[in-house]
Specification:
The complex is a heterodimer of chains A (about 375) and B (about 220).
Chain A lengths: L8 E9 L2 E9 L4 E4 L6 H9 L6 E6 L2 E5 L4 E2 L7 E4 L11 H6 L7 H14 L15 H14 L4 E5 L7 H17 L3 E6 L2 H7 L2 E6 L2 E7 H6 L4 H6 L4 E7 L5 E3 L4 E3 L11 E4 L5 E3 L12 E11 L3 E8 L11 E6 H7 L6 E4 L6 E3 L2
Parallel strand pairs in A: 3-9, 3-10, 7-8, 8-9
Antiparallel strand pairs in A: 1-2, 1-4, 4-5, 5-6, 10-11, 12-13, 12-15, 13-14, 15-21, 16-20, 17-18, 17-20, 18-19
Chain B lengths: L2 H31 L5 H13 L2 H12 L4 H10 L7 H26 L2 H9 L4 H12 L1 H16 L3 H7 L9 H10 L3 H33 L3
Helix pairs in contact in B: 1-5, 1-8, 1-10, 2-5, 3-9, 5-8, 5-9, 6-7, 8-11, 10-11
The chains are: A alpha+beta (about 375), B mainly alpha (about 220).
Chain lengths: ~375, ~220
């Protein structure tokens, strides 16, 4: 583990563009920070502002104690002097230069020996020595990504910004490249910002997350924390939670889920009265009908199938509690179950038993 | 066959193409990348020679550079003669007349350069100047060649401006197109025919060669 002294990146900026307002504030330390949010939430604009490609209306950007932007002091360091490595979504390799020339692009000021050494180092680290003399147009997407990363790292940037680095790749290439990226980031000494709309990807690569929604920060902190207890409905949505209902607290401590038409026991302590109750689709369990007769743990209700979607290993069931659905879109909850489980009850008569385990249900204050 | 006129036309066309390569690039760069709100006015001025009759352009150059105008006086005090009816005057007018034929292809090719490549260059520490020579220009080489070729060809074919600004001085301002006109006026159809044919073939060969190279230059980088 490298010693990361003052690897902080402090961002607090505002910008208004054509009806969209971006106002974000967060701090990154040495560990990779994920910027997670749906498209149009301001992730890319934030990244571009840090790189110096977009000028905020006001605010401050400080990288390792160096002020890059400060509207009050009138500081706006140009992109070329910020020493920030930016990995573009489509990689933006120079098509008229070879791989080696692309990597050497930012090293012009260096003496030849030093330049060649750095290019060789980057080629070796990214395992692309054999591609040195090739042109970008002849490379696969995964190879292009590695070249772009090597080019960004060659200038020994103080911060590395990755804009959806896997979105241009075929699915089967992603996991290997992701592993390599995690390894590269582990060896890299500066701050890393990883922009993604894919929550699983962001979760795997980053330690901490900043969730953006509609141009502002909806949550930030350690990733486990954000996934386990999303602070708001918006964050729950962004982190992939598909089931939520308006909620009312009952005198006996249980919570009535108004949209689902059921009353739930909950494990979570709450101070403020909850506005919403939610559960992730993969935490919803579905059992054969026999389970309904067992008056055990509670939070088990009769449910009917409205429609379903199949993926190779799992099925997503759209379910309705309490009464048979009127049509295929008349459902309240989605459950994601493995195929074997699905086989155990698919041919049994409905209603089936839906279980919303008390420790899996979470409450949202607003 | 008037070889003197032929050589003069070539000399003029090569000079115009060369000057426009150097002077048209910054104008095209500015037109492409400036965000000034009144930019369209400059674009309209650059495009004026496309629609203006050459006699109008020639007239203003004549008046603007003549001995009674301020620039004309300055020029005369430095060089001892006025510009109209000299090769320099003809060159100046021809450059103006071919300006859109250079600036528009340059600008169109600058526009095709992916914005992200330019930004990538900046984030890698390159200045705007360096980015132009290392990224934009190499990627718009085709437009540079086209612009130079068009201004060359356009100058060879120029008639009205030459007549207005250059007059008809053998070896100084009498270009091929004027020479052919003179021969036809004098009913020397044989000579006019031969000169015209040589001009036609030559222009075709030059353009074919340029467009041929152009296509190959493009294909090196844009391979699928």
């Amino acid at each position: 583990m490298l010693l990361k002294a003052n690897m902080s990146l402090e961002v607090a900026i505002e910008k208004n563009v054509a009806g969209f307002r971006l106002a974000v504030e967060f701090t990154a330390d040495g560990a990779p920070l994920g910027l997670l949010g749906p498209s149009g939430s301001g992730k890319t604009m934030t990244l571009r502002a840090i790189a110096g490609l977009e000028k905020p209306d006001c605010g401050r950007i400080v990288l390792q104690g160096r002020v890059l932007f400060d509207s009050e002091q009138g500081i706006d360091v140009p992109a070329r002097a910020r020493r920030i490595g930016l990995l573009f979504q489509n990689y933006a390799l120079f098509p008229h230069l070879t791989v080696a020339e692309n990597i050497a692009f930012g090293l012009r000021e260096l003496p030849d020996a030093e330049k060649n050494r750095r290019v060789a180092d980057q080629l070796a680290a990214a395992h692309i020595d054999s591609l040195a003399e090739r042109y970008p147009a002849t490379l696969s997407g995964g190879e292009q990504q590695r070249v772009a990363l090597a080019r960004a790292l060659a200038i020994e940037p103080a911060a590395l910004l990755l804009d959806e680095p896997f979105s241009a790749l075929d699915t089967h290439l992603r996991s290997a490249l992701e592993r390599q990226l995690r390894e590269t980031l582990g060896n890299y000494g500066g701050s890393t910002l990883f922009v993604s709309h894919n929550l699983e990807e962001a979760y795997r690569v980053c330690e901490k997350l900043v969730v953006l929604a509609n141009g502002s920060v909806a949550a930030q902190g350690p990733k486990e924390e954000i996934f386990r207890h999303p602070p708001t409905l918006e964050v729950a949505r962004v982190t992939g939670c598909k089931n939520y209902s308006r909620a009312r607290r009952l005198p006996d401590g249980r919570v009535e889920a108004l949209d689902w038409g059921c009353t739930l026991r909950v494990a979570q302590q709450f101070a403020k009265p909850p506005e919403h109750v939610a559960i992730r689709a993969n935490h919803v369990r579905v059992h054969p009908p026999q389970k309904l007769n067992l008056e055990n743990s509670g939070n088990v209700f009769p449910c009917w199938l409205a429609s379903m979607t199949e993926t190779p290993f799992r099925v997503t069931l759209d379910l309705r509690i309490g009464a048979p659905p009127a049509g295929s879109d008349d459902f309240q909850l989605q459950a994601e179950v493995f195929k074997q489980e699905w086989e155990s009850f698919r041919n049994l008569p409905q209603p089936w038993a839906i279980e919303l385990a008390a420790e899996r249900v979470f409450l949202l204050p607003d | 066959m008037n070889w003197q006129a032929m050589v003069l036309s070539l000399k003029l066309a090569v000079c115009v193409a060369g000057i426009l390569l150097a002077a048209g690039m910054p104008i095209a760069y500015w037109v492409t990348f400036s965000r000034w709100r009144w930019k369209f006015l400059v674009e309209a001025i650059v495009a004026l020679p496309l629609v203006l009759p050459p006699t109008v352009l020639g007239y203003y150059v004549l008046v603007g550079l003549g001995p009674r105008s301020f620039p004309g006086k300055v020029w005369q005090s430095w060089f001892g003669h006025t510009l109209p009816f000299t090769f320099g005057g003809l060159l100046f007018a021809s450059v103006l007349y071919s300006l859109p034929f250079a600036v528009q292809p340059f600008s169109a090719s600058f526009e095709t350069v992916d914005r992200r490549l330019i930004e990538a260059s900046w984030t890698l520490g390159a200045s705007r100047f360096a980015t132009f020579f290392r990224v934009i220009l190499p990627l718009s080489a085709a437009g540079a060649v086209t612009g130079a070729a068009l201004s060359f060809a356009h100058t060879i074919g120029e008639f009205g401006v030459v007549l207005m600004v250059g007059g008809n001085i053998p070896g100084v301002t009498r270009t091929v197109s004027i020479d052919i006109y003179d021969q036809v006026q004098a009913a020397n159809y044989d000579v006019a025919n031969r000169t015209a044919l040589v001009l036609l073939l030559f222009s075709f060969l030059v353009l074919a060669a340029i467009y041929g190279t152009n296509r190959r230059a493009l294909s090196i980088w844009r391979r699928p």
